[in-house]
C-alpha cells in the first residue's frame, strides 16, 4: 500500500551546482539531500514528499545523477533526467542567476521543450537584487516566465510553492483543454514601455475620457494597480505598474527596472500596449520588451506617442514601421496607433485597436479551412529534405488560441527546420488574417 505512487511528481532538474539539492531541502523541509560546494559530487537520486499549499507531492531531485553517464555535460544532464522527466507532472528547471545562462542550460532547455511536460523555470541564487539580468536572459530559453528565488536564503519560496500547486494536474484552476477560451471578464490590458514614453500620461488620459467602473485598486502584485474602464465595446481592465516604476527611480537603473516592471505587467495582461516616444524612434530596449511580449504570447499594439511633437509624420511612421518589420519578424503586421497622450489627439483610436488585437489573438481556424490551406502551402513549397529524406507532413489542427497555436502532425515532423516553420507562420498570418499576434507551431512526429 504505497500511496505515494499516486502523488503528483515534481522533478527538479538543471545542471550541477545551480542549487537543486538546496531547493529540494527547502521544499521537503528536512535535510534529506547532501549539499556540496563541489560540482557533481556523486549523490543518490533523492526523493521526498513535500506539502505545498495543502497538496502532497513527490519531489525528485536529479542532482548528482550526472556522474552516472559519460559524454558531455548536457548529455549527462539529459541522461540523468530522462526517466525522471518522463514521469513528471511538473519539471522545475533551475538555472543559476548569478552565473547566467550557459550553453548546457540552453541545450537542456531545448530538449526539455520537446518533452511535452509542464515546466516551471527557476532563476536561483537571486537573493537581493542579484540575477535580474539573468532572469531577463532566461526568457530566451522559451520556457515561460522565470521565477527568481533564492533556495539558500528562502526568498521567493512561498511564491514558488503557490506556482507549483497551481500547476499540479488536478489543481483547482484546472487545465482543461479549452480553459484558455475564457469568455468572461474584462479584457486585460497592460501599458508598457521605456521611462518617459508617456505611459502615465496615457493612463491618465484614458481614465479621464472613459467612464471608470472601479477606481484604482491594489492589483495582483505588489505596487501594481488596476482600473476597469467601461468602454463601449466592453469593459477593459488596465494593469498599471506605476508604483514599481517609481521605486525603480530610487533603487536601481531606470531602464532595467522599467523592463522588469513591464514583465510583471504583461504577465497579467492579454493585450499589451507598447508605448514609444515617437520623437526618439525605436530603441533596442523597445525591441527587447517587444520580444518579451512575443515570448509570453501576448497580443500587442504599438503606440507611437508624442505625435504632436513629431515633425515629419509620414517619414517617422515609415522609419518606425520598417525597423519593427525587420527586427520583429515574429510579430509581423503589428497594429500601430499614433497619438498624443498630452493633447488627447488620436487617443480614441487606441482601444478599438486593442480590441481588434484581442480578437485576432483569440481567433480560431477550423480544421477544415486549415488543412485546405495547408495542402496548398505544402504544394507550393515542399518541406525540405532532412538527412536526405523528405518529411511527410500530414495535417494540421489549431490546438488553442490566446495566442493562436497550431499542431502539425507527420512522419518525423519534429525535424521540420525553423525556416519552414516561418514560411508556414507567414502563410497562416496572411491567409487567416492574424496580424501582430504571436503564432505558435508545435510539431508532432508520428511513427
Ligand atoms: P546542485 O548541484 O544543483 O544540487 O546544487 P547544490 O544545491 O548542491 O548547491 C550548489 C551550491 O550553490 C552550494 O554551495 C549552495 O550553497 C549554493 N546555493 C544554492 N542555492 C543558493 C542560493 O539561493 N544563493 C546562493 N548564493 N547560493 C546558493
Ligand atoms: P512614463 O515614464 O512613461 O510614465 O512617462 P510620463 O507619462 O511621465 O511622460 C514623460 C514625459 O513626456 C512628461 O514630461 C510628459 O509630459 C511628456 N509627454 C507624455 N505624453 C506626451 C505627448 O503626447 N506629447 C508630448 N509632447 N509630451 C508628452
TrEMBL record:
UniProt xrefs under CDD domains: EngA1, EngA2
Binding sites annotated in the UniProt record for GTP 1: 14-21, 61-65, 124-127
GO MF assignments: GTP binding
SUPFAM superfamilies (alphabetical): P-loop containing nucleoside triphosphate hydrolases
PROSITE patterns associated with the record: G_ENGA
Coiled coil region boundaries: none
Domain EngA-type G residues, every copy: 8-172, 187-362
Domain of life: Bacteria
Positions with a binding annotation for GTP 2: 193-200, 240-244, 305-308
Signal peptide annotation: none
Keywords: GTP-binding, Nucleotide-binding, Repeat, Ribosome biogenesis
A Pfam family of this chain: KH_dom-like
UniProt-listed GO biological process terms: ribosome biogenesis
Function: GTPase that plays an essential role in the late steps of ribosome biogenesis.
Subunit relationships: Associates with the 50S ribosomal subunit.
HAMAP family per record: GTPase_Der (MF_00195)
Homology family: Belongs to the TRAFAC class TrmE-Era-EngA-EngB-Septin-like GTPase superfamily. EngA (Der) GTPase family.
Protein name listed in UniProt: GTPase Der
Organism placement in taxonomy: Bacteria, Pseudomonadati, Pseudomonadota, Alphaproteobacteria, Acetobacterales
Amino acid at each position: 500500500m504505497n500511496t505515494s505512487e499516486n502523488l503528483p511528481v515534481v522533478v527538479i532538474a538543471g545542471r550541477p551546482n545551480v542549487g537543486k539539492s538546496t531547493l529540494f531541502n527547502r521544499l521537503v523541509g528536512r535535510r534529506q539531500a547532501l549539499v556540496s560546494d563541489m560540482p557533481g559530487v556523486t549523490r543518490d537520486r533523492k526523493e521526498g514528499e513535500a506539502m505545498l499549499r495543502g497538496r502532497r507531492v513527490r519531489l525528485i531531485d536529479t542532482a548528482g545523477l550526472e556522474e552516472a553517464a559519460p559524454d558531455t555535460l548536457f548529455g549527462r544532464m539529459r541522461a540523468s533526467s530522462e526517466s525522471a522527466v518522463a514521469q513528471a507532472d511538473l519539471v522545475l528547471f533551475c538555472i543559476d542567476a548569478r552565473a547566467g545562462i550557459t550553453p548546457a542550460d540552453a541545450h537542456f532547455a531545448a530538449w526539455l521543450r520537446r518533452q511535452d511536460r509542464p515546466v516551471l523555470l527557476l532563476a536561483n541564487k537571486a537573493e537581493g537584487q542579484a540575477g535580474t539580468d539573468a532572469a531577463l536572459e532566461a526568457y530566451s530559453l522559451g520556457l515561460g516566465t522565470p521565477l527568481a528565488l533564492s533556495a539558500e536564503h528562502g526568498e521567493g519560496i512561498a511564491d514558488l510553492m503557490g506556482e507549483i500547486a497551481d500547476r499540479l494536474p488536478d489543481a483547482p484552476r484546472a487545465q482543461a483543454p479549452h480553459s484558455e477560451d475564457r469568455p468572461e471578464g474584462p479584457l486585460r490590458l497592460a501599458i508598457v514601455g521605456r521611462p518617459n514614453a508617456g505611459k502615465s500620461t496615457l493612463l491618465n488620459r484614458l481614465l479621464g475620457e472613459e467612464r471608470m467602473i472601479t477606481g484604482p485598486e491594489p492589483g495582483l502584485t505588489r505596487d501594481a494597480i488596476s482600473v476597469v474602464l467601461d468602454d463601449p465595446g466592453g469593459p477593459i481592465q488596465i494593469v498599471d505598474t506605476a508604483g514599481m516604476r517609481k521605486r525603480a527611480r530610487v533603487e536601481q537603473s531606470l531602464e532595467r527596472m522599467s523592463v522588469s516592471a513591464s514583465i510583471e505587467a504583461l504577465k497579467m495582461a492579454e493585450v499589451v500596449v507598447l508605448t514609444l516616444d515617437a520623437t526618439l524612434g525605436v530603441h533596442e530596449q523597445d525591441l527587447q520588451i517587444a520580444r518579451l511580449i512575443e515570448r509570453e504570447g501576448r497580443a500587442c499594439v504599438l503606440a507611437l506617442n508624442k505625435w504632436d511633437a513629431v515633425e515629419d509624420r509620414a517619414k517617422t511612421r515609415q522609419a518606425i514601421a520598417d525597423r519593427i518589420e525587420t527586427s520583429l519578424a515574429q510579430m509581423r503586421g503589428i497594429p500601430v496607433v499614433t497619438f498624443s497622450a498630452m493633447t488627447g489627439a488620436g487617443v480614441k483610436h487606441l482601444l478599438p485597436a486593442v480590441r481588434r488585437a484581442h480578437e485576432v489573438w483569440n481567433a480560431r481556424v477550423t480544421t477544415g479551412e486549415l488543412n485546405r490551406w495547408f495542402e496548398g502551402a505544402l504544394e507550393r513549397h515542399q518541406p525540405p529534405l532532412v538527412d536526405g529524406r523528405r518529411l511527410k507532413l500530414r495535417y494540421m489542427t489549431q490546438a488553442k488560441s490566446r495566442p493562436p497555436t497550431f499542431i502539425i502532425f507527420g512522419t518525423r515532423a519534429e525535424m521540420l527546420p525553423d525556416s519552414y516553420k516561418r514560411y508556414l507562420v507567414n502563410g497562416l498570418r496572411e491567409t487567416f488574417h492574424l496580424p501582430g499576434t504571436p503564432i505558435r507551431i508545435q510539431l508532432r512526429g508520428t511513427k
